[in-house]
Structure formats: structure tokens, C-alpha cells
Amino acid sequence: MTNKLVAIVLIILGFLLAASGYRADSTGYMAAGIVLLAIGIVLLVLKVVRRNP
Question: I want to staple 30 with a disulfide (CB 3.0 to 4.6 A). Which of 17, 21, 37, 43 is the partner?
């Protein structure tokens, strides 16, 4: 349960950070947001794959 919650929070924060970086024209914020988004997606996919053998 907590792994799924962490993944969803990372996806939301990553999206918000990437959007803020895009709007402010800041490559660092946008890259950090994309990294958080990717980590969140990977965690969520791993959760689904472990649940469905």
C-alpha cells in the first residue's frame, strides 16, 4: 500500500515540478520533475507486475 502511495505522490510532484520548470523556462526544474515522474511510473508498474504473475 505504501509503495503505491509513494508512486502516486512522486508522479504528482514530478508532473507539477516539470510543469513549473517548463513555465519558468528552467531546465533543472523540468529535468528533476521528469526524473520524479519516471521513478513514480516505474514504482507503479513494478507494483502491478508483482501483483499479476
Answer: 21
